[in-house]
Design brief:
The structure is a single chain. With 428 residues, the protein is α+β, with helices and mostly antiparallel strands. The protein is 33% helix and 23% strand. β6 and β7 form a beta hairpin. α4 crosses α10, α6 packs across α7 and α8 crosses α10.
Length: 428
């Protein structure tokens, strides 16, 4: 090894304030994704400036410039990509080592006020936690990657393989077209690291899933004329109970044991429910409709056809119950299907080795319990993508935070993995 563990630890710890400063600056950029639009451009400009200062060649490109993107089988949705460019940055090696790509997304889900701050884009530090929208998903991982690149620059480490960085738009909210654009465009590497928040677990696979909106329609009103009213909320209650039973059954049937001995299974998340148009405190009428939105996960090898047939089949069986007579039940897919995927690459073992050294105990590869754009690499390119990111909580929720010390560990893992994977040409 061209550096000692103690030297690396000392350097990263000495740059902790810089790491935090970068993350504070990035979280303060409200790069929200609000389909069909998004505000990623200021974040892309920030990253391009940072990478240029680290001697990367950079380019922003519009998705509309990518020939073949909209006709690709994996392109989805009617999104507006005006002023929403992807960013690609690269640093050439000597051409005799393996290439590595850091694949990140610039967008975040819309901010939600929380207890730590009314404005989720005004980050705050409490103890060893940095709070703010995007701190965990995934600007914390981005900051760790940038600091790893800075280490290589300051130490004069010249890699044999190419090192590249891709920041895409429209990853959140079921988009994925930004990541697809990079694959169609030909931005490839021998392997990729995706810094999604994985609690420092090396994830060579991840869950997939899809989101549906289910609407129950009834006959609303007050019944002054003696008409037969039908309350859709009662009908939805039967569906919710059925969905809960479906989740319990699925977790028993599809649960599996990870290589580290933990039990893991796909999740079913009822994320929204709504009915009626009256103001609170004016409950004097039956609503016309009741609606829920639900996220249903699947295993890495499960197809959309299998997931849809199973889930919708469960809804259909309940819809025919006598208790739902006179009610209409409709469902619609509100995101693309995000398949789970697996990465087959020796990079996984390198990352596991580095993670074990940081934790001081044996660790194993996990399946990330979420869907993400890694499938665009693993299913539609020859670049396998492994997920490894920081420790944190509350992604997509109020009071999102990332653990700062985990970013220190993550930076060290990234540095050693880059050097081992790409190889070193010289040491100054």
């Amino acid at each position: 090894m061209i550096f000692t563990d103690q030297d690396l630890e000392s350097w990263v710890q000495s740059r902790k304030d810089h790491l935090v400063k970068m993350l504070l600056e990035m979280v303060a950029i409200p790069s929200e994704n609000k389909p069909p639009n998004g505000n990623e451009l200021p974040m892309q400009k920030y990253l391009e400036k940072a990478l240029t200062e680290l001697d990367f060649d950079t380019e922003q490109y519009a998705l509309s410039e990518v020939v073949g993107l909209r006709t690709h089988q994996a392109f989805w949705g009617d999104r507006n990509y005006t002023d929403r460019p992807n960013l690609y940055a690269s640093k050439k090696g000597k051409g005799v080592g393996k290439s590595l790509l850091f694949a990140v997304h610039a967008d975040v889900v819309p901010g939600i006020p929380g207890k730590t701050a009314e404005d989720p884009f005004q980050p705050v530090i409490i103890g060893d936690r940095l709070y703010g929208r995007g701190s965990n998903d995934m600007k914390g991982g981005v900051a760790a990657a940038l600091l790893a690149f800075q280490y290589l620059q300051e130490k004069g480490i010249h890699l044999l393989g190419d090192l590249s960085f891709e920041s895409v738009v429209d990853e959140e909210m079921g988009g994925a077209n930004g990541t697809l654009a990079g694959r169609v465009r030909g931005n490839r590497a021998d392997a990729a690291i995706v810094p999604e928040p994985s609690n420092l677990r090396v994830c060579a696979s991840h869950m997939g899933g899809a989101a549906w909106r289910i609407t129950v329609r009834g006959k609303g009103g007050m019944g002054f004329g003696g008409e037969d009213l039908r309350n859709p909320v009662y009908g939805m209650a039967h569906l919710v109970r059925a969905i809960e039973s479906y989740q319990n059954d699925m977790q028993k049937r599809k649960g599996f044991i990870t290589p580290t001995g933990e039990s893991q299974s796909p999740a079913v998340v009822l994320s929204m429910i709504g009915a009626g148009s009256f103001e609170p405190g004016m409950a004097d009428g039956i609503p016309e409709t009741c609606m829920i939105e639900i996220w249903v996960e699947c295993l890495p090898d499960e197809s959309f056809a299998a997931l849809e047939s199973e889930f919708i089949g469960a809804i259909r069986s309940v819809s025919s119950l006598p208790e739902l007579a006179g009610l209409e039940v409709d469902w619609e897919l509100i995101t693309r299907f995000l398949p789970g995927s697996r990465a087959e690459t020796p990079l996984t073992n390198i990352l596991l080795q580095q993670a074990e050294e940081e934790w001081g105990m044996p660790v194993g590869a996990y399946t990330a319990p979420f869907a993400c754009d890694a499938f665009m690499f693993n299913c539609y390119s020859d670049t396998p993508a492994v997920i490894l990111g920081p420790v944190g909580e509350n992604a997509h929720a109020p009071d999102e935070f990332v653990d700062i010390e985990s970013l220190i560990k993550l930076t060290k893992i990234y540095i050693t993995a880059i050097v081992e994977w790409c190889g070193v040409e010289s040491w100054r």
